Amino acid sequence: MDETKTLAPAVRSILRAADERAEPEGRVSVDGRSLTAAIEASDGTDRTPIIAEVKPTSPTTDGTRTGDPVAIAREMEAGGATALSVLTEPEHFGGSTDALERVRDAVEVPVLRKDFLQSEAQLDAVAADAVLLIARFVDDLPALLTGARDRGMEALVEVHSREELAAAIDAGATLVGVNNRDLATLEVELATFERVAPDAPEDVTLVAESGIANQADARRMRAAGADALLVGTAIMDGDVRDRTRELVAA
Ligand SMILES: O=C(O)c1ccccc1NCC(=O)[C@H](O)[C@H](O)COP(=O)(O)O
């Protein structure tokens, strides 16, 4: 069966657009800031590591959020974010590689590139400290993991099920995000993280992604084993610095 048929139409459209984007020229080489180390730096403190996402829009967002990505990123950092996630997908998320470059120049924390990468060549579109690799969309995960590492970037491997987690671990992933959003329906269920997390080996750094709306959700994900939380909407749709600070204090 064609795997893409089980995806939401918006996700199929995202993947088609990614496929049609021109391949970057050249090869990036990054002296990356470690996302894993930044998360681990909160161990033994009362801070919740938050990866705050600069998210102009998305298929499930009404309208587009205006605001300079750099100004937003600075507010996130001032609110105590451990790292930032910047969308580089232009057509469905309003992101750009230019926004990521400008954000990375403006902040000191690690910056994750959030996109829908399917091939090694796409890693070269922009220098980031880490890249998201969605297990479900990548044919050869070990090759992409090696490709990212060879360029000096960490990889956050995103999974949505216990089977995908097992495949990610087999491929050598050490930084894993469990997406609470089902890319077949776009529904968000925090129970997804709770179902998948117990299968993760102790030495894997685990990130809970999507649908974390408030401090109660943040505490729920931490109780289920999240080492860090990736949050977009709840931060973007309020006072960015205050919302970040609240989640860091959860
Ligand atoms: O957010 C969407 O609408 C979306 C739709 C289709 C594929 C992916 C999508 N989101 C990507 C993300 O990973 C989220 O932006 C990220 O986890 C933050 O989620 P949230 O805090 O719920 O904004």
From TrEMBL:
Signal peptide bounds: none
All residue ranges annotated as the Indole-3-glycerol phosphate synthase domain in the record: 26-247
EC code(s) of this entry: 4.1.1.48
Keyword Lyase belongs to the record: yes
Keyword Amino-acid biosynthesis: yes
The protein's enzyme class: lyase
Catalyzed chemical reaction(s): 1-(2-carboxyphenylamino)-1-deoxy-D-ribulose 5-phosphate + H(+) = (1S,2R)-1-C-(indol-3-yl)glycerol 3-phosphate + CO2 + H2O
GO process annotations (BP): L-tryptophan biosynthetic process
Pfam families the UniProt entry points to: IGPS (PF00218)
Entry GO MF terms: indole-3-glycerol-phosphate synthase activity; phosphoribosylanthranilate isomerase activity
Top-rank lineage group of the source organism: Archaea
Assigned protein family: Belongs to the TrpC family.
Protein name, UniProt field: Indole-3-glycerol phosphate synthase
Source organism per UniProt: Halanaeroarchaeum sulfurireducens
Gene from which the chain derives: trpC
